[in-house]
Structure formats: structure tokens, C-alpha cells
Amino acid sequence: xxxxxxxxxxxxxxxxxxxxxxxxxxxxxxxxxxxxxxxxxxxxxxxxxxxxxxxxxxxxxxxxxxxxx
Length: 69
Hints:
By secondary structure, this protein is mostly beta strands. The chain is about 5% helix and about 35% strand. It has one domain: Cysteine Rich Protein, CATH 2.10.110. A hairpin with a 2-residue loop joins strand 6 (about 55) and strand 7 (about 60).
């Protein structure tokens, strides 16, 4: 899985909230775009935008702790 922080040069839709991403940067995880504020663990809701990594399975994002459970 690749987590990329990209300069937002094109209009993309956030996978989590469905709204356009107009932020300067967006998070791209396996081709899915996220607002930084929407990038949260599916289980514990921890904000992941400042975490060193996150995990992705079945279009769901997880923190490391919840991914290994």
C-alpha cells in the first residue's frame, strides 16, 4: 500500500466524506483521495494525517494497532 501526500492540482473527491478536496494537499492511498481531517482509523477514529503510516484493506483505513487485530 502506498500513502502519498500530493500537491492538489486536480479536483478529487474525498473517499470518506464525498466532498471535493480543495485543500492544498491531499492524501492518496491506493488511488483513493482523502482530506487530512477525514483520514481516520475505521475502528478507533484516530486521526491518521500525522501518523507515520496507515493501513488500507477493503477501502477502509486503519491505524497499525487495529489493522493487526
